[in-house]
Amino acid sequence: MEMYFCPLFSGSSGNALFCQYGYTRLLIDAGKPGRAIEEALRSIGVDPGTLSGILVTHEHSDHIQGVGVLARRHGLPVYATSGTWLGMEGKIGKIPPELRREFYAGRDFYLGDLGVVSFPIPHDAQEPVGFRLYGGNLSVSTATDLGCFTREVYDQIAGSSLILLESNHDPDMLRRNPHYSSALKARILGERGHLSNESCAKALRALVNAGTGTVLLGHLSGENNTPELAMRVNTDYLGLEDIQPGRDVTLNVAQRDTRGPVYIIRETHSAPGSRQQVTEPSSE
Ligand SMILES: [Zn+2]
Ligand SMILES: [Zn+2]
Question: What is this structure's pTM?
Answer without folding.
Answer: 0.94
